Amino acid sequence: MALSDTAAQQRLRDAGLRVTVQRTRVLEALAERPHASADLVFTGIRDTLPGIALATVHGILNDLTDAAVVQRVNLPDVGSALYELRSDDNHHHLQCVSCGRVEDVACAVGAAPCLHPSHDHGMRILEAAVTYRALCHECERNGNG
């Protein structure tokens, strides 16, 4: 999914963020590679922005997450957070236990997992996450699982 400069800049403006080349490139990188780590985003943009530092990418991703422009995704067995542009809905993730591939899954249907705890112990629930752990067709075909 490509994201034009204009669309990326509009997302930043809509979130009340200052439009910069670095922020625009980070959004474009996430459009090209959803569920990317900060390291992967950095690798994807450093050739077009040779002066950018990994710490800057981390800062931009934090700012974009705080502004709800991107969503931070923490998955089992993944050493660092992943980021995606899809932040305005309640979707889940499907993760291959062999190769680590991550795909979006719409809300659970049928006998949905428990997303509302039986007791909140006086805490305000901020989020609930469901991760389906699976074996992708490619890994299963190659005997990796």
Short recap of the structure:
This protein is an alpha+beta fold and 145 residues long. The protein has two domains: 5-73, Winged helix-like DNA-binding domain superfamily/Winged helix DNA-binding domain (Arc Repressor Mutant, subunit A), CATH 1.10.10; 89-141, Dna Ligase, domain 1 (2-Layer Sandwich), CATH 3.30.1490. It contains five helices and six strands.
Written description of the protein model:
The chain is an alpha+beta fold and 145 residues long. It has 2 domains: 5-73, Winged helix-like DNA-binding domain superfamily/Winged helix DNA-binding domain (Arc Repressor Mutant, subunit A, Orthogonal Bundle), CATH 1.10.10; 89-141, Dna Ligase, domain 1 (2-Layer Sandwich). The chain is 33% helix and 14% strand. It contains 5 helices and 6 strands; from the N terminus they run ααβααβββββα. Strands 1-3-2 form a 3-stranded antiparallel sheet. The chain has a 3-stranded mixed sheet with strand order 5-4-6, with no helix packed on it. It starts with a helix and ends with a helix.
Mean pLDDT: 87
The domain tally reads 2
CATH 2nd-level architecture of the largest domain:
Orthogonal Bundle
Structural class: alpha+beta
Secondary structure: helix percent: 25-40%
CATH class of the largest domain: Mainly Alpha
Q: The biggest beta sheet, please?
A: 3 strands, antiparallel
Number of helices: 5
Strand content range: 5-15%
The gyration radius over C-alpha positions equals 17 Å
CATH homologous superfamily descriptor of the largest domain: Winged helix-like DNA-binding domain superfamily/Winged helix DNA-binding domain
